Amino acid sequence: MFYTEALYLASWSYIIARLTSLFHIFCYRDVTCRHSLLHSRGGKMAPTHVLRCCQRGLAWIPVIFIALVVCWSYYAYVVELCIFTIPSIGEQIVYLIFFHLSFVMFVWSYWKTIFTKPANPSKEFCLPKAEKERYEKEERPESQQEILWRAASSLPLYTRTGAGAIRYCDRCQVIKPDRCHHCSACDMCVLKMDHHCPWVNNCVGFSNYKFFILFLAYSLVYCLFIAATVLQYFIKFWTNELTDTPAKFHVLFLFFVAAMFCISILSLFSYHLWLVGKNRSTIEAFRAPVFRTGSDKNGFSLGFRKNIAQVFGDQKKYWLLPVFTSQGDGLTFPTRLVNTDVEQATVTLQSEPSKSAADITVSPLSESQNRLLSNEQHANNVGDHLANNTLKSAESETITISMESES
């Protein structure tokens, strides 16, 4: 009888978590499809702002669900377990002290992850009014790219699209900084975007990535502490050493919920620790960033210690606190690539007769350098690119680079 009840509660806890996640995905897809139908039918369906409000309201369902689970876990642990079940006062005090420490840090980091606004590109990445009008009037992609290349000549941009073009967001009408991506759920470009998390109803990026890591860490500690301290009383209820009381249901359910969330959070937390050690975002882990020298999944990796400092900062005393200490401004990032550009190979690279292009040594940049190339060198590269584009035919999209040996 007791085993059936336990299995029933565990099944329902898993079903609720899965249905909430699937419901959130369905809501986003459904609203997106309706938004597309609205434009295709000339606005005959409900107004766009109504659908947008519904989308924003539905997006809070997972957050509300987590908040309710946390509130119930607080009541079940403090009242039902510590006050009504644990007989020893000393044990109660010790459990309550450590429980509230983990609870406060968990709620604090969760709050910061939810309500920290994602960082957006600055105004310098917007096209000037005249260039913007020219860009919108142009129908040929080649001409549009010419405009973007000229506008990007003064910007610290060193990543490209897969085709080698300037990364531009037509939705936000900005040139994307390095590691910046457009979030369709938030409808904005987010600096160093990692992913959009439905459980925090926010985009995880440069401004709150540290908070998100701490949220995973403290939620894991919170669940582990609850599962470890509840286990002995779970066994006592299982073996009927304790009489059936209203606390029995709460203790049983509390252990299953804590164990379930602990397993799921552990895998996610481990994955993001690996990403931090490699200095990659979730997007970059699936699609390597493309530099002028080609795609490189380790292009932003500076070594394990420096990668950690990129997210948590230089002062270790603030690492475990959900306060912003990440390095940089989110617009430019130091890289390990050399100060060379394959587009300048015929001008700047002179290979010896016994050396090929593959023999050129790659050396890391100094820590003080916060850009892949200097703006002056970047401007020269853009000028060379524009000059090359005027020489090639409109049909050809391939740039041939020759490596001339010293005579």
From TrEMBL:
It is an enzyme of class 2 (transferase). It is a multi-pass membrane protein. The chain crosses the membrane at residues 6-28, 58-86, 92-111, 211-235, 247-271. The keyword ATP-binding does not apply. It holds the Pfam family DHHC. Residues 167-286 form the Palmitoyltransferase DHHC domain. It is found in: Membrane. GO terms for cellular component: membrane. InterPro entries: Palmitoyltrfase_DHHC, PFA4/ZDH16/20/ERF2-like. Its EC number is 2.3.1.225. Keywords: Acyltransferase, Membrane, Transferase, Transmembrane, Transmembrane helix. One of its GO terms (molecular function) is protein-cysteine S-palmitoyltransferase activity. It catalyses: L-cysteinyl-[protein] + hexadecanoyl-CoA = S-hexadecanoyl-L-cysteinyl-[protein] + CoA. The DHHC domain is required for palmitoyltransferase activity. Belongs to the DHHC palmitoyltransferase family. This is Palmitoyltransferase. The gene is zdhhc20b.
